[in-house]
Amino acid sequence: MSATVEDAILFRSVVGAVTPLAEHNRATQAKPAVHTRVRSTHSATEILDTLSDYQAQPSAETYLANGLSRMVLRKLRRNSIDDSLDLHGSPIEEARVLLQHFIFSAIQQGFRHVRIIHGKGINSPGGEAVLRALTRNWLTQHPQVLAYCLAPPNLGGDGAVIILLKSN
Q1: Are strands 113-117 and 83-86 parallel, antiparallel or unpaired?
Q2: How far apart (Å, rounded) are the C-alpha atoms in residues 69 and 74?
Q3: Which InterPro entries match (predicted)?
Q4: Which end of the chain, N or C, is less packed with Cβ atoms under 10 Å?
Q5: Rounded distance between C-alpha atoms, residue 138 and residue 136, angstroms
Q6: Nearest to 138 by CA among 40, 38, 39, 44
Q7: Closest Cα to residue 77, out of 153, 131, 168, 159?
Q8: Per-residue pLDDT reduced to its tens digit, 74-104
Q9: CA nearest 154: which of 102, 115, 123?
Q10: Tens digits of residue pLDDT in 96-128
Q11: Hey, what long-range contacts does 107-110 have (CB within 8 A, 24 or more apart)?
Q12: Cα–Cα distances in Å, from 137 out to 26, 40, 47, 51, 58?
């Protein structure tokens, strides 16, 4: 729709001699507050209750959530670590609680790449790496874990995993 000469004359007759307000008389609008939203609807305790010790199959050296490319694992090995948790030597129930609280805290802080040291089982009875298998099992069940892989040798090798967490 185009403005005609008659429209312009009509507009000027209605508006008349309007002048803009002086700068000191203008209202200022406050910027809207920025609200950060945590997408996790589960508390640390609720998730802790769902982490089972039962293993349907032996724990794998890597885990990748459905729909993610194997390139994610390759990149995960090369990324820097935001935080780390050392579980080796911890009793099983304590390790489960520590792992859950560590992941919850990491997500709250916006960390995406974390390391969990579970140990190699060298000092365990029978030399069996109980925490290694349980840690990997718990991670595959955790809703905030997208992927994990063995840590490079300088970061713990097969005694640790590097984890990719969902972003906030």
Answers
A1: parallel
A2: 10
A3: Smr_dom (IPR002625), Smr_dom_sf (IPR036063)
A4: N
A5: 5
A6: 44
A7: 153
A8: 999 888 999 999 998 889 999 999 999 999 9
A9: 115
A10: 999 999 999 999 999 999 999 999 878 777 767
A11: 107/38, 107/40, 107/144, 107/165, 107/166, 107/168, 108/38, 108/168, 109/82, 109/83, 110/167, 110/168
A12: 62, 21, 14, 8, 8
The residue among 111, 120, 122, 128 whose CA lies nearest residue 167 is 111
Element (H, E) at 61: none
Sequence-distant (≥ 6) Cβ neighbours of residue 79 within 8 angstroms: 113, 162
Q: How many percent of the chain have pLDDT more than 70?
A: 79
Q: Which amino acid, 148?
A: Y
- The per-residue pLDDT for range 15-43, each reduced to its tens digit, is 777 777 787 777 776 665 554 444 444 55
CB 80 within 8 A of CB 111: no
Average pLDDT of the segment spanning 142-147: 94
Q: How confident is the model at residue 52 (pLDDT cuts 50, 70, 90)?
A: low
